[in-house]
Amino acid sequence: MKIAVLTGAGVSAESGIKTFRDSDGLWEGHDVMEVASPEGFKRNPEVVLDFYNQRRRQLLTVQPNAAHRVLAALEKTHEVTIITQNVDDLHERAGSTNVIHLHGELLKVRSTFDEDLVLDWKEDLNLGDFCENNHQLRPHIVWFGEMVPMIEVAADVVAQVDSIIIVGTSMQVYPAAGLVQYAKPDAHIYFVDPKPSISESKRITVFTEKASTGVPKVVALLK
Ligand code: APR
After folding, report:
1. Distance 178 CA to ligand 1 centre (A)
2. CATH code for the domain defined by 1-16+63-103+147-223
């Protein structure tokens, strides 16, 4: 059985990484266009680099939670593709081997001149950190207004799976939020979120609870 798992910030909330739109979300204190847009980076690169340095440092101190681990274990019995809006590496650290990052990766940076020049990067990134061709490096993150290069690949996956598990996303940011439209008519959809943004129907089963308890319940149903 083929499964696509669409995850958002909520799947990492119990690992200690703040979500974006919950009350104490990440954007508080930061205008999102100031720290997550090309204009913001041009206007004030230090503020943007510092915002991602804080998030990168925090990521190195947290661990995957039960939801990440159960989804990784699901690969033993099913063909699983994780399609995440998250930029953390917690799915990979939990053992998932097939992860599509729609919005980039916090532990990678790329050349501001050649977007295909991508480097692994675990320490702070500052002005003056250049690529091999002497261009400033930037976070390998999809900022607001930028293209989502993996969206077609992700849509192709969703169009072929038998079940879709959606975990911890407010379904407010497109094109990621639109992926579920590509599901086959007979594909069943499972939605895990304490404040679900879609409602139960014949083809949608909603678990109004946290990822760490809801995801194991969905996986148990699929086994
Ligand atoms: N378990 C499961 N879901 C949770 C938990 C939890 N413990 N805690 C919060 N949630 C849910 C919230 O109810 C909400 O529906 O996670 C969702 C978080 O929504 P957002 O903060 O909007 O995060 P997300 O949907 O991933 O945002 C999408 O927006 O800011 C951009 O690029 C950024 O990738 C991000 C995108």
Report:
1. 15
2. 3.40.50.1220
Residue whose CA is at the smallest distance from ligand 1 atom 9: 10
Q: What pLDDT digit, counting tens, does each position of 158-168 carry?
A: 999 999 999 99
| CATH number, domain 18-61+106-141, options 3.30.1600.10, 3.40.710.10, 1.10.10.10, 3.40.50.720 | 3.30.1600.10
Q: Scanning the structure block, which residue is given the tokens 């790329």?
A: 110
Structural domain boundaries in the chain: 1-16+63-103+147-223, 18-61+106-141
Which residues have C-beta atoms less than 6 Å from ligand 1?
A: 8-10, 13-14, 19-22, 25, 85, 103, 168-170, 172-173, 193-195, 197, 210-211
Asked whether the beta carbons of 163 and 187 are under 8 A apart, the reply is yes
Average pLDDT on 41-52 reads 96
**Residue minimizing CA distance to atom 25 of ligand 1:** 169
The alpha-helical segments, DSSP class H, found in the chain are 10-13, 32-35, 38-43, 45-59, 66-73, 90-94, 151-158, 211-222
